[in-house]
Amino acid sequence: MVKALRFKGDKKVKKRKRTEVDNGNTEESSSSKVAKQQESEEPEGWVDSESLEDINGPIILTFSAARPICIACDAVGKVFASPIDSTEGEDLSTAEPTDVKQVWVATKIHGTEKYSFKSHHGRYLSCDKFGGLSATREAISPEEEFLPVLNELGSGRWALQTVRDKFLSVDEVGAGGATEIRGDAEAVGFKETFVVRLQARNKKRKKSGTEGKGKDKITRKELEEQAGVKLDDEQVKALKRARREGRFHEALLDIRVKFGKHDKFAY
């Protein structure tokens, strides 16, 4: 169920308890108890993303500066740098949106590692061939696809790559300290590094124990079925490592091409 966004300073609304009569006694219903327990367990506020799985649903794309900013857009689709509240100055660990214009809805594009970012008025963030950003298109084309690349600076810090292998960047223009966001940077540096913040209740929790381990396990037989060839120990280890690091399909394709049986005369 989609829940309303909560902004810094909003008062928390208390829900009335639902009750039902059972054998003449008024008791709190079991469904109400479950809802109350789930609500109390939900973490509040916004947190940094740590993995691609976290980049889902409402997010803010923030940048660390003397006065922290985030990528925002207005009603006509103009993309701009919007100041954002942060009690720690350049530290974005407390940054939260103060306006719906600062919030984007991230969605992974099926069959790829790329994402789209929908604005508050239903249009998608786009980067043209000149590096200009806008949010005016109602459908997703390659220019509305972005690849988040985890930066070495730490968890929650990402570079956003466009379809033309350029990167989104933040730069100061003019003497007044005005900030411009573009999508034509050739390499990743400090100006190309963003912190993706999401609602804490939407953060993917890491599973522990046998449940989490069972999901990550894959047998040699399953790997060989997917590869279509017999695998040696080194190939099995390489595929399992690639699976943990999120590049399984690329590694599997390399093995198929190099060792798979194929008819060289087929067209």
TrEMBL record:
InterPro entries per UniProt: Actin-crosslinking (IPR008999), FRG1 (IPR010414)
Gene3D superfamilies: 2.80.10.50
Bias type Basic residues, positions: 1-18
Principal cellular location given in the protein's record: nucleus
Molecular function terms from GO: actin filament binding
Domain of life of the organism encoding this protein: Eukaryota
Keywords from the UniProt entry: Nucleus
GO cellular component, one term: nucleolus
Composition-biased stretches (Polar residues): 22-37
The keyword Nucleus belongs to this UniProt entry's keyword annotation: yes
Region (Disordered): 1-49
Biased composition (Acidic residues): 40-49
Ranges in a coiled coil: none
Protein localization: Nucleus, Nucleolus
Family statement drawn from the similarity comment of this UniProt entry: Belongs to the FRG1 family.
Protein name: (Perigord truffle) hypothetical protein
